[in-house]
Amino acid sequence: MLILITYDVNTETAAGRTRLRKVAKQCVNYGTRVQNSVFECILDNTQLIKLKAILTDIIDEQTDSLRFYNLGNKHTTKVEHVGVSKGIKVEEPLIF
């Protein structure tokens, strides 16, 4: 299923900047960055539960926020892109 993850991490302190890097690193491990704090991830339920736990452990719930949007398995009809480069399709293999 396609999960859209967005986050807002308070970066006014060094600790906040560290949390921001950690959140981004974990999201990169599971999906594709489509904007600065937005990732598209193809995950099964187990992976989603694991990633939520990892990210929740990283953030400070008093100053930061996470959002998970479940677009399901039929996400191609739910996503429309306008503007610069569509990037890559997260559900297809990458060949370098």
TrEMBL record:
Keywords in alphabetical order: Antiviral defense, Endonuclease, Hydrolase, Magnesium, Metal-binding, Nuclease
Required cofactor(s): Mg(2+)
First-level EC class: hydrolase
Domain of life: Bacteria
GO molecular function ontology, one term from the record: RNA endonuclease activity
One Pfam family it belongs to: CRISPR_Cas2
Binding positions for Mg(2+) per the UniProt entry: 8
Example GO BP: maintenance of CRISPR repeat elements
Keyword Metal-binding: yes
Assigned protein family: Belongs to the CRISPR-associated endoribonuclease Cas2 protein family.
The protein's name: CRISPR-associated endoribonuclease Cas2
Organism the protein comes from: Enterocloster bolteae 90A9
Lineage of producing organism: Bacteria, Bacillati, Bacillota, Clostridia, Lachnospirales
